[in-house]
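Memo to structure team: turn this sequence into structure tokens by end of day. - J.P.
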Amino acid sequence: MPKHARGSARTRLLAAAEDMLREVGMAGTGIKDVVARSGAPIGSLYHYFPGGKTQLVSESVQINADKSRRLLSKFFDGKQTGAAALRSLFHTAADGFERAGGNKGCAVGAVTLDLMPGDAALRDICKRTFDDWVAIIAPCVPFPDERARRGFAITAVAALEGAFVLAKAARSGEPFRDVGDSLAAMISGTARKRR
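Reply from structure team:
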């Protein structure tokens, strides 16, 4: 049974759209392709998503954004150092990327790259998601002031998105591991100097 053949037609459509956003971005995600991948009848798409592709993409990227926030919160929960959390996050991303076949990026990042001037609602979802990631990471960074912690957290988010690009080009999770190790070393050195 295909992955998307389980659940309601609405759930299958959302899951198929989320997968496609990770693989080919918003521009490459066509309605007919989503329907074919989901196994749902075409009529169910317009029943559940009367706003068409825009509504389907918005809801799919919001689901992905919610998942990503929960995932980051597990890594940056204060149970380990910021360096260990970064290393673990990036190594876990590398493993997941490789398990998925080396061709899936971040849905939020992919949609962000495809935004057009009129995509205000989608832009808001993407911006909020990245802002939330920064807010989750910043408190775990061992810098003395809030501005420095936030700046490093923005760097970590940019590095995560960049690692997706490099990993996709290489079809390897190694860029995630390299970047995660480098970021962890940066703040480990800072933590040692402060002692």
